[in-house]
Design a protein that fits this description.
Blueprint lengths: L16 E7 L5 E11 L1 H13 L3 H8 L1 H8 E3 L7 E8 L2 E2 L4 E4 L1 E3 L8 E6 L2 E5 L6 E3 L9 H5 L8 H4 L11 H9 L2 H15 L3 H33 L4 E6 L2 E6 L8 E4 L3 E2 L3 E6 L1 E5 L1 H4 L5 E4 L17 E2 L4 E6 L6 E7 L5 H11 L7 H29 L4 H15 L4 H18 L2 E3 L4 H5 L4 E4 L11 E7 L5 H4 L1 H10 L4 E3 H8 L21 E11 L4 E6 L3 E6 L1 H7 L7 H9 L3 E10 L8 E9 L6 H10 L3 E5 L4 H10 L8 E8 L2 E7 L14 E2 H6 L4 E6 H13 L1 H12 L1 E5 L3 H11 L7 E5 L5 H6 L2 E4 L11 E3 L5 H40 L6 H18 L21 H26 L10 E3 L2 E3 L4 H20 L14 H19 L15 H37 L7
Parallel strand pairs: 22-30, 22-36, 30-35, 31-34, 34-35, 36-37, 37-38
Antiparallel strand pairs: 1-2, 2-3, 2-4, 4-5, 4-6, 7-8, 8-9, 9-10, 11-12, 11-13, 13-20, 14-19, 15-18, 15-20, 16-17, 16-19, 21-38, 23-29, 24-25, 25-26, 26-27, 27-28, 28-29, 31-32, 32-33, 39-40
């Protein structure tokens, strides 16, 4: 039994906040800052008074804005008096999650610190130490124990209540709470206010219509929220029976009962239910759920020594949650055994789930922009409301009735059906993505995909095939493979899983290789009994060392690894080593260097054997996809852990790099960044080319150049960016010209996404297939995972087609969805402005629309148009510019303002024409039950006809076709609605008796009907032509200026 270590008392320190520098899995790093707050009693009393005076409105605003909540109720404090903490999550000073206010609980008998302050943040528990004020995550750590002590663990049963059960349960709120959250959103609060207002003013039918629309919209939102949470829950939650040893007895328990320190029996063909450390035996693991790679991985047991345990560097001793054990064995013939290390959301799989649920990356939010736009509309509505009150006052209308009329104007100008129409557009986009084999767990990212102008690709498994073809070898002279059989033995001990094999059989494997110098191996077979070779010790591959090795029964150490690392430990490096390495890597081959040493086990002063050369072929769809992106002014870059020369060659093959451009590779020399030109054809340095150029010289070159850097250079640039404010734009300009990022670690990939996003014009998509890409998938604006395994949890989008072609489909659907949302938004707001202008004129003439007239426009025109325009599919080609997304922009505002002006002017002209007709009579108000009773009259009838024509014309004008969506003629249902709308207008003008039972309008003389038709046709054509010609050109020009064309610099 292992005892718990408590923090020792020392001098207390109180800075008013605590911080945690977190080093996560796969080098993921971030910083948490917890700022101490407490509830201020005086502020609380004032808040309740204001809450009463504002009839609860203040509660909504403090619910929506965390800074307002802090101002109204809280104050900063010291450690001893805190009741809450404000948690801020950053990476390199950049926020990567929304700020959260967490309630703090004082735990008197906390096992790690007496009177610790405990809180929950992002499904993980944290505590602040009483004495050091350090912020500590409640996750298990064996870093204070030696490896031998870990191997002798028997269980830590007292930690059950500390770390909780080993199960990942996503807190899905009950439907009543989800319903409350949806009701209390700004859109829905406005809708319910409109409903109450219209019901109070005796427009009961219209208010019931608003209620139905609101219920539909809330139902759609609830369904989407629950489906997304349930989708993630299904991917991460499982509970199986496992065998453990407790108190020297083997028992079977449910996996959710596992606790850190439990001794777990690992059987073959079983799924691992926690993160654990292998302490006895060996396992062959399938880690495809994490890495995306199907190659089995050998796991060996932890060595018993006095070294302190560190997870970093011992990944090959660990079994991760969600992976599958294919085979389990030990020397005594029993199953392997492992010690439970992390459980629940503290596992690697749990961290992936939390990252997608709580990550904040998008710098563009259509919902946020739409709220700003509606704020502008609401301001316009308040102006019209004041005008209404003035008009009503001049007409002697009571103040209460004037206020009701004014509020009705506000509810008209901010359309209540807008959220439902926008939600329908998102839902249809999700369905179209599913039809194209793209799954989505974050629907708000669909519109963000429309803004993408830079796509970063992983190389192996993404741009190229996942597997490697053995192309051949290049052995060192006078160290031939068949003289000493060293290379052939190396092939066996490093790449084959069997423990024993005859030497002549090894040679037969080796002769299958094709030699690079053109000659052929001769088949060799020993006549005498072959020598038996077995592996005595295996040193697994470590990313930090970039090599692995084995010791055979012949007392020989064989080692393989990256050419750079093998070179550093060998004593007999050929003089043309670098030339040979560059020759093959520049052709896009994967190179592994091999070496050996007799008797000694230390990896130093070894004898170099030669290179094994593998070919990693491009996927068939890679070249065409990159070309399509390039023609669309979308920059493509490669981010890989491979050799820079190999990456440059692949970049040339797949068209990321141009054949006619000058390519420069950045390298650090004694802390100074130099650039060497690489031949684009042979991919090598040449004495006639520019060498050892400084960065300032590179930036002054007027030719078309493309840069390539390594992870080491990127870390240097990252440091320069953070060091001085003056360096930031310099670094961003350099990255704008960089297309190849090689030798990048997993955390480098994520940091690159954050750094590229600092350019406000960049919207970045990342496409990768494995866990080494999860940092980048999370930090990019849009992530597309080419995997069905758990690694896809880190990505908002997952493609079930494992090539990059779906990146085109994702961007096309994103653009179509954004265009639909913008057009639907413009249509809904413009119809409300047209309708409010008509109603305002009715108020001026002491009348109003009847309920039937309101319902005619809403049910016959507006709702069908708004919902069927969403059905238009995306265009089959990718345009060379992005659609406009900023609602507060010149094209959008000018379009809305001009059409409002045209519509209002047409209504006034039509009414003036009406007033000069002989048949025109002033309206007579009937008083029924002490209230005004509105009925069809000449004024509201002519305004109804004119405004309905304008709404129909706006719907036709705002339905955009190519280059982002198909032509509207392809949208069958929309064309039916347009025809029905035109038919309805013809009936209103010429055959009002057909709708007489609805009391929709009065009938006009025949000659005046012709005038109405002519004016309406002119108005409709004017609106459509202005939008299709002038606004369309303005939008394209605006979009082309907005797009970042840095890849053409």
């Amino acid at each position: 039994m292992i005892e718990l270590q408590e923090t020792s008392p020392k001098e207390e320190i109180d800075f008013g906040q605590s911080t945690l520098e977190y080093q996560g899995e796969y080098d993921d790093q971030y910083k948490l800052t917890a700022i101490y707050y407490r509830i201020n009693k005086c502020k609380q009393i004032i808040y309740y008074v204001l809450l009463f005076l504002t009839l609860g409105l203040l509660y909504l605003f403090q619910r929506w804005f965390i800074n307002l909540r802090l101002f109204l109720l809280f104050e900063k404090c010291e450690f001893g008096t805190m009741t809450h903490v404000l948690v801020i999550k950053t990476k390199n000073i950049i926020p990567i999650a929304d700020d959260q206010l967490c309630e703090v609980t004082v735990v008197q008998d906390h096992p790690f610190s007496k009177h610790a302050r405990v809180f929950n943040y992002e499904l993980s528990d944290y505590f602040i130490d009483t004495y050091s004020k350090a912020l500590v995550q409640m996750r298990n750590s064996f870093s204070q124990y030696t490896q031998e002590r870990i191997c002798n663990m028997k269980g830590l049963s007292e930690l059950t209540t500390i770390y909780g059960q080993n199960i990942m349960e996503i807190p899905i709120k009950p439907i009543p709470l989800l319903l409350l959250d949806e009701i209390l959103t700004p859109f829905n609060i406005f809708q319910f206010s409109a409903l109450a207002l219209w019901a109070y003013d005796d427009y009961l039918n219209y208010s019931l219509f608003i209620l139905a629309i609101t219920i539909i919209q809330i139902g759609i939102e609830l369904r989407d929220v629950r489906q997304n949470l349930q989708k993630i829950q299904k991917m991460i939650r499982f509970n199986v029976d496992v065998k453990v040893i407790r108190n020297n007895n083997q028992i079977t328990i449910e996996s959710k009962e596992l606790i850190p320190g439990d001794l777990l029996i690992i059987e073959g063909h079983t799924k691992i239910s926690c993160d654990c450390i292998l302490i006895e035996g060996n396992c062959v693991m399938n880690e495809a759920v994490l890495t995306g790679e199907s190659v089995p991985i050998n796991k060996s047991s932890l060595e018993k020594n006095e070294q302190l345990f560190l997870q970093k560097g011992n990944e090959n001793k660990m079994l991760f949650c969600g992976t599958t054990c294919l085979r389990s064995y030990s020397q005594n013939g029993e199953h392997a055994k492992a010690i439970v290390y992390q459980t629940g959301f503290q596992t690697l799989k749990g961290s992936l789930a939390r990252s997608i649920m709580f990550n904040r990356t998008q710098t563009f939010s259509f919902y946020r922009d739409s709220l700003r736009y509606l704020f502008v509309l609401a301001t316009l509505g308040l102006i019209q409301a004041n005008i209404t009150i003035l008009i009503s006052g001049a007409q002697g209308v009571a103040l209460g009735e004037s206020i009701i009329n004014a509020l009705e104007i506000v509810t008209i100008i901010v359309p209540a059906t807008l959220p439902t129409a926008l939600g329908a557009g998102i839902s249809l986009a999700l369905k179209r993505l599913e039809d194209k084999s793209i799954q989505c767990v974050k629907p708000d990212k669909i519109n963000v995909a429309s803004k993408v102008n830079l796509v970063a690709f992983d190389k192996t498994g993404t741009l190229t095939e996942l597997g490697l073809d053995v192309l051949g070898c290049r052995e060192i002279k006078d160290q031939g493979c068949f003289q000493n059989s060293l290379m052939s033995v190396w092939v066996f001990v490093i790449h084959y899983q069997q423990q024993i094999m005859r030497l002549w059989e090894i040679q037969l494997i080796y002769v299958c290789f094709k030699r690079l110098d053109g000659s052929q191996w001769k088949r060799v077979r020993q006549e005498k009994e072959g020598k038996e070779v077995s592996v005595l010790k295996r040193f697994d591959f470590q990313a930090e060392l970039q090599r692995m090795s084995v010791i055979t029964n012949q007392c020989i150490l064989y080692c393989k690894g990256s050419p750079e690392q093998i070179k550093s430990i060998c004593r007999n490096i050929p003089i043309n080593y670098n030339n040979m390495l560059q020759k093959y890597s520049s052709q896009g081959f994967r190179i592994i260097a091999c070496c050996y040493r007799d008797r000694e086990i230390y990896e130093q002063s070894m004898s170099f054997l030669g290179f094994l050369i593998f070919e990693n072929k491009l996927k068939a769809e890679t070249q065409s996809t990159i070309l399509s992106l390039k023609y669309s002014n979308i920059k493509s870059i490669m981010v890989t852990g491979d050799n820079p020369y190999t990456a440059i060659n692949i970049g040339l093959q797949c068209n990321i790099l141009d054949q006619n451009s000058r390519i420069f590779l950045g390298q650090l020399n004694e802390g100074v960044l130099y650039w060497n030109e690489i031949n684009a054809i042979e991919n090598r340095q040449n004495s006639n080319q520019a060498q050892n150029l400084e960065t300032n010289q590179i930036m002054k070159l007027s030719c078309h150049l493309q840069l390539a850097i390594t992870g080491q250079v990127f870390e240097y640039l990252q440091y320069q960016y953070a060091a001085l404010l003056d360096n930031q734009q310099w670094v961003l300009n350099l990255l704008q010209k960089t297309y190849i990022y090689s030798r990048m670690k997993p955390n480098n990939k994520g940091d690159l996404m954050l750094l590229l996003r600092q350019d406000n014009l960049n919207f970045i998509a990342f496409c990768g297939d494995g866990t080494n890409d999860t940092c980048a998938l999370r930090q990019a604006d849009v992530g597309l995972a080419l995997s069905l395994e758990d690694a896809s949890l880190a990505s908002p989008f997952t493609s079930t087609i494992f090539n990059i072609s779906n990146m085109i489909n994702l961007i096309k659907e994103g653009r179509a969805c954004l265009v639909t949302c913008v057009e639907c938004f413009k249509f809904m707001t413009l119809y409300s402005c047209i309708q409010s202008a008509a109603v305002l004129q009715c108020y001026f003439y002491d009348t109003d629309f009847t309920q039937v007239q309101y319902l005619y426009q809403d049910l016959w025109l507006i709702i069908p148009l708004a919902f069927t325009m969403d059905l238009t599919k995306s265009y089959n080609k990718l345009a060379n510019y992005r659609p406009i997304s900023n609602l507060i922009s010149l094209p959008v505002l000018s379009s809305v303002c001009v059409i409002i002006f045209i519509s209002f002017l047409a209504q006034m002209i039509m009414h003036q024409i009406l007033k000069h007709q002989d048949f025109y009579q002033q309206m007579v108000i009937e008083l029924v039950n002490d209230d005004y009773y509105m009925q069809p009259n000449y004024t509201n009838s002519i305004l109804l006809i004119t405004s309905s024509t304008e709404i129909l014309a706006v719907g036709l004008a705002y339905t955009q076709g190519p280059p982002f969506r198909e032509a509207i003629s392809q949208n069958f249902y929309y064309m039916i609605v347009i025809c029905m709308g035109i038919a309805g207008q013809i009936v209103l003008i010429f055959f009002p008796n057909l709708t007489g039972f609805l009391s929709l309008e009065v009938e006009f003389p025949t000659d005046f009907k012709i005038q109405i038709l002519v004016v309406n046709i002119v108005v409709g054509i004017t609106i459509v032509f202005y939008e299709k010609l002038i606004t369309a050109k303005m939008t394209q020009k605006y979009a082309e200026v907005e797009i970042n064309l840095g890849n053409q610099n």
